[in-house]
Design a protein that fits this description.
It is a single chain. This protein is an alpha/beta fold. It is built from eight helices and nine strands. It has helices at 17-24, 56-64, 83-91, 102-111, 125-135, 140-154, 169-185, 193-198, and strands spanning 6-10, 30-32, 36-37, 52-53, 68-74, 77-82, 95-99, 116-121, 162-165. A five-stranded parallel β-sheet has the order 2-7-1-8-9, sandwiched between helices. A hairpin with a 2-residue loop joins strand 5 (68-74) and strand 6 (77-82). The longest helix has 17 residues, at 169-185. It is globular.
């Protein structure tokens, strides 16, 4: 069984990242990484499924031991991605998708240089603003804050291996699977292929 790989997956708010992931995860070769957190479980959440719920003391000890690929604090709780969680799934042949914001993604790229990084972008900033307005769930002020944040994130997109424009959902998903296939076909990812061909 061939190993899977870690896929960094980032997108500004309003780019359809969640909808794309929902479709991608229907393919059983893909899964998402289950993060560790120090926050308490919410009703219905299951340890090891939604999150790995651990104490702050345990979390900080694991940070000290270098057990996290990345970690961050948000609203007084710690969140992080465990090497062990990702490695286990990769060794099972799964492609592990790490859905993460840009700053965290940059840290993962440093810590896991062979991770594949994919940035999902809108066709334009104006289209992104239109989509956020269409939701009708936020004030104009919040929308403009999200657009400003998106512009900052998009300016970092060229640091990723691939940029996919999510204009039409089906096309964006096809592009994602094309990226995965292209990576699989790279000679560096098929080290025994030439000898196999010659020795058949």
């Amino acid at each position: 069984m061939s190993k899977g790989r870690l896929i960094i997956f980032s997108a500004p708010s309003g780019c359809g990242k969640g909808t794309m992931l929902e479709q991608i995860l229907k393919n059983d070769k893909f899964c998402v990484s289950v993060s560790a957190t120090t926050r308490n479980p919410r009703e219905g959440e299951v340890n090891g499924v939604n999150y790995h719920f651990i104490s702050r003391e345990d979390f900080l000890k694991r940070v000290e031991n270098g057990e996290f690929i990345e970690h961050a604090e948000y609203c007084n709780n710690l969140y992080g991605t465990l090497h062990s969680e990702v490695d286990r799934k990769i060794n099972e042949g799964k492609n592990v998708i790490l859905e993460i914001e840009v700053q965290g993604a940059m840290n993962v790229m440093k810590n896991v240089p062979d991770a594949l990084s994919v940035f999902i972008a809108p066709p334009s900033v104006n289209e992104l603003r239109r989509r956020l307005n269409k939701r009708g769930t936020e004030t104009q002020e919040v929308i403009e804050e999200r657009v400003s944040q998106a512009e900052r994130e998009i300016s970092c997109a060229d640091k990723y291996d691939y940029i996919i424009i999510n204009d039409a959902l089906e096309d964006a998903i096809d592009d994602f699977f094309s990226v995965i296939r292209a990576e699989e076909l790279k000679s560096v990812n098929q080290p025994s292929l030439v000898s196999d061909i010659l020795n058949k």
